Fold:
Amino acid sequence: MNILNTFIVFVIASSSFGQTVSELLNSGVNKQNKQDYKEAIKDYDKALKIDKDLEEAYYNIGTCKLALKDFEGAILSLEKAIEINPKYFKAYYNKAVVFISQEKYIESLPTLNKLIELDATFPNALTLRGQILAQTGDKKGACEDFTAAKTNGDKKATEYLNQFCGNEQQAGESLMLHWPESENWKIGSSKEDENSAVMELIHADEKLESWTEFGYMSSIKGVKNVDMDQAMNLMFEQTKINAPKAQLTFIEKDETVECPWIIFAIECPNFKNDKTPESQLWCIVQGKTSLYTNFRAVKEVTIPEDKLTKWTAFFKTGKIVYSEE
Structure:
C-alpha cells in the first residue's frame, strides 16, 4: 500500500511539473487571451507550485480574477505580486482598477499615489488619477494631473483638459478655469476645429434645451492683440441683433497684465424669437496665441447681485497656462 501511494504521488508530481514555468505561463496567457480565465488561473497556479515567488503569475491571476469580478481575490493576488516586487508598476495600476471597477474611487487613490510616486510617467496613471480627482471634487488636482500627463506625452490628456479644465489651445496654451464642483457642472457639448474651440456647460441634472444656469467657454485661435473695450462692444453688438433691448454694463478690466482681461454684463429682457429673458456675465481674456471668450448665464432680466459678485470672483480665478507639446 505504501509503495502504491508513493507511486501515485510520483505520477501526480510528474504530471504537474512536467511543464516548465515558462510553458505554464505561456499556456495561461493564451487561455487568458481567449477569455478562458478559469483555466488560465489553473495554469498560473501550477506555475506557482514550481516557483512560489513568481510575480508574473500572481499578476496574471489578479487580472483574470478582475475579469471574473472576483474583486477580493484580484486584490489579494495583485498585492502578492507587489509584495514580491515593490516596483511592479502594472500590479499597482491594476489594483487601482479593481477598486474603480467597484466604484470605490477614494480607495483607489493610495495605490495610484504610490504608483505615481514610483514612476510618474507610467502610461495613463496620471490621467486615471486625474479623472478620479475630478469626479470626487478635486478639480484643481485633476487639472494638474492632466497637464502633467500631457507633458509626458499622454494623448488622452488633451481630451480631459478640454472636458474638465477649460478649452485646450494650440502651442500648449490654455485657459484654465475651475468650474465649482459644488455647482455640479457637466459638459453639455464640446467641439473644436482649426479655427476655434467651444464648450457649453450645464448642471448635471439639466439638459441643453432646458437649463437654469449656463456656462460657455470658447477660443478663437490665432487672434492676438485685441483691445478689450472693442471686444466687449463687439459682443454687445452681436447680441443686439437678436435682442434689441439688451443692456451693457462694464464691470472691471485690467490691460496692464501680460494677458489682458475684461468683465462685463449683457442683460436681455427678451429676444426677437424668444420672450424668455437671459442675462450673461462675460469674461474675455487675451492670450498669447488665442482670444478666450467666456460667459455664465441665467434666465432672468438682470443678474442678481449675489450672482454678479460670485461670478465676477469666479472669472478672476481664470489663468492662462502653458505646456510643452
The first strand starts at residue 173 and ends at 176. The chain has two domains: 2-119, 171-322. Strands lie at 173-176, 185-192, 196-203, 213-221, 247-254, 261-268, 278-286, 290-298, 319-322. The CA atoms of residues 69 and 101 lie 9 Å apart.
